[in-house]
Design a protein that fits this description.
Layout lengths: L1 H31 L4 H26 L3 H26 L2 E2 L2 H21 L13 E2 L1 H20 L18 H33 L3 H13 L1 H12 L3 H26 L2 E2 L5 H19 L5 E2 L1 H18 L2
Antiparallel strand pairs: 1-4, 2-3
Helix pairs in contact: 1-2, 1-6, 2-3, 2-6, 2-9, 3-7, 3-8, 3-9, 3-10, 3-11, 4-9, 4-10, 5-9, 6-7, 8-9, 10-11
Amino acid sequence: MIIHTLYLIGGLAAILWGANALTDGAASTAKRFHLSNLVIGLTIVAFGTSMPEFIISLLSALQGSSDLSIGNVVGSNLFNTLAIVGCTAIISPIFIGKGTLNKEIPFTLLASLILFICANDQLLGSESASNGISRSDGLLLLCFFLIFLSYTFAIAHHPEARAEETPIKILPLWKASLFILLGLAGLIAGGKFFVEGASGMARAWGVSESVIGLTLVAGGTSLPELATSITAALKNNQGIAIGNAIGSNLFNVFFVLGTSASIRPMKIQGITNFDLYTLIGASALLWIFGFFYKKQTINRLEGSLLVVVYLFYLYMLWP
């Protein structure tokens, strides 16, 4: 048990350091090409902060721990939508631009619905098939990921995308490249230790890998998103604060699960429709709050409600 705990903590530390280094190097490189902060938040920062989920899910799928892989993505998206957006709004109310409210958030809701459809073969009539994310499902998710990237770069020079920007430090090219390489190395090494530690702790505690993935692993791998969004909110940079959370959700479903399932199809055993319904409801709730009174703001009360919903979900999840 002690060994597994050390693996978990050491792996998480390496993952978080690697994600931070990779994000700094990639954001600096992107800024050299004059991309806006919103676009960087939706792509580069979101990709960097989603690397822990990607590494954990990919390695888990390759090792046959599909519940840990899928639970990590579902749990991370719930943590992003309810806990991160909620905590960020409590600290500083989040203004949501019209483009984000009308396009990005609905796209996040669509991603949750697509995941629900892909994961419910039996519910949708294929009684002979087992629920899971097949290779064809994974390729479909990657197609949606390409659509999302195309849309993101299409808005790269939109005036709204440049609103309320704060400077991003531009590093020397050699230093940015070094950060990217070292960050990737930290992610890969830390990911291996983290997966082994998480699986070992699940066995030691007598709980399923799906519960560990939905809670402990999801919360741990979402720490970069939490730190990034809260820091951006304190600096009054709502573009990165909300863009990071939304972008990470889309990366997790379309890229992380899409890539993992394309390499190795994943069976679903411990992840239930309750988890997927909660994910859909969380995305819908975020969208509804943004429309309240047409003010396009997630205020402190709404942020508190999001956190309460997440805590209730955790209460219902644990046996």
